Amino acid sequence: MFRIFICVVSTFLFISVICEMAQSTRFDELLNLDSLRKSLVRQEDTIIFYLIERAKYPRNLALYQEKFVPQSSDSLFHFFLKESEALQAKAGRYTSPEENAFFPDKLPAPLLQTLNSPTPTLHPSGASINVNDKISHFYLKKLLPLITSEGDDGNHVATAASDLDCLQALSRRIHLGKFVAEVKFRDAPEDYTPAIHAKNKEALMELLTSSRVEEAIIKRVAKKATLFGQDVDLQENDTNSKYKVNPSVVSRLYEEWVIPLTKFVEVEYLLHRLE
Amino acid sequence: MFRIFICVVSTFLFISVICEMAQSTRFDELLNLDSLRKSLVRQEDTIIFYLIERAKYPRNLALYQEKFVPQSSDSLFHFFLKESEALQAKAGRYTSPEENAFFPDKLPAPLLQTLNSPTPTLHPSGASINVNDKISHFYLKKLLPLITSEGDDGNHVATAASDLDCLQALSRRIHLGKFVAEVKFRDAPEDYTPAIHAKNKEALMELLTSSRVEEAIIKRVAKKATLFGQDVDLQENDTNSKYKVNPSVVSRLYEEWVIPLTKFVEVEYLLHRLE
Fold this sequence. Notes:
The structure is a homodimer of 275-residue chains.
Chain A: H1 2-30, H2 33-54, H3 62-65, H4 76-91, H5 124-127, H6 132-147, H7 156-175, H8 177-187, H9 189-197, H10 201-208, H11 211-228, H12 247-271
């Protein structure tokens, strides 16, 4: 009997340790610059796939402009985004420190308390930084007109689902800046501390900037858009020059919005890092 | 006054005609074999992008196996799929004859009656054919183990959202078989009518099969998986042989499940075509 008890207890302890290890491995990855870089590079593919999917539909302006919800001014896009986030909140999405909602104020609680209680990977003062209003602004006003044709094909719900994919992928990528800033700070607190105390945003921006890395990103995303957005057929030598999303638009997306907003998040995070 | 009246009426009529034209253009496209083929080819890219995205996460078995909803046996996956469809139904997704739900029985009504009232493009007896139970079975039991690594990274909601994308893309592609069958029947009713009257499934399957076209599809999807699933860097000559989803698995997906299920839908549709 005692042996069975020992066996059960040791199995339980073993499983707990394994779970704990899996959990800490995942959060450790977010605090390792090499893993973070790999994740950022992989997220480029995700963002480009989703943009190519959105470009399958025309602009579909009525989705964003026409009133959809009775007794409210909400458009179908607004309704869909808000309700999708509410559903994903119930499912537990926003318990992860990597996820930031576009409508964070009235999210329902998760149905089930998961094991993923937020490990304090980020400094609490900067953890809640959220630039999703800026992301949805550039996405809707600047990017959509560059990647979609004019017109309306009536596929409004599929278009809204595609917008949700794009917005969540961009948000995840840009807010990863909080983890990048945390890692960079931990690696060299002596470099950042004076600028943080002086609230010197320009100095922080300079410390965080590597033009060489940024240029490589901007070139790489164009190459990816070229490869992923071509029409593939079985001919050996494709001389395709028509892409589903213009590669130079993807470069511009990174140069003008994704990289600057990520660095904005990094600077904002660092400004609160010593509070 | 009369001139203003004439002007308003003629503007209204003009807009109505334009809307009507846009609407009928869209449904006409679904009844044109060339447009349908283009759409099927484009949907290959969609399916492969979504599979590559799903492969970013490990199997995450707990998502499908563990009880998630209190007072119910539903897993998080089941809850998420059902609730997402309910939300999309409210938004009007299932008013389109191209969309087929995985839980069609208890879908809420659309919040707004859209202009997209189903045009009778499909014959009513076959329009409701739904093989989503077969699709979710092969996706969960056969395909997922082939494209994901074992393990659990805790990203359960993002994984479920990714599964939803894959399942909806596969469902849309396979159920387009109803439109393919309708077009083929309209093009040559004399070829199909005897087999339909005789309820001869084998004869219908033979009429619908083009081995040459199927072989080209199976090769093309592997080529797409090779191009879209590679790790892209800035070196000129990538000699990459590691792909995010094994191209031969994508070929097998089409050969063993997508093509046979599409033809199953086509045959079932034709069997009801003369009712």
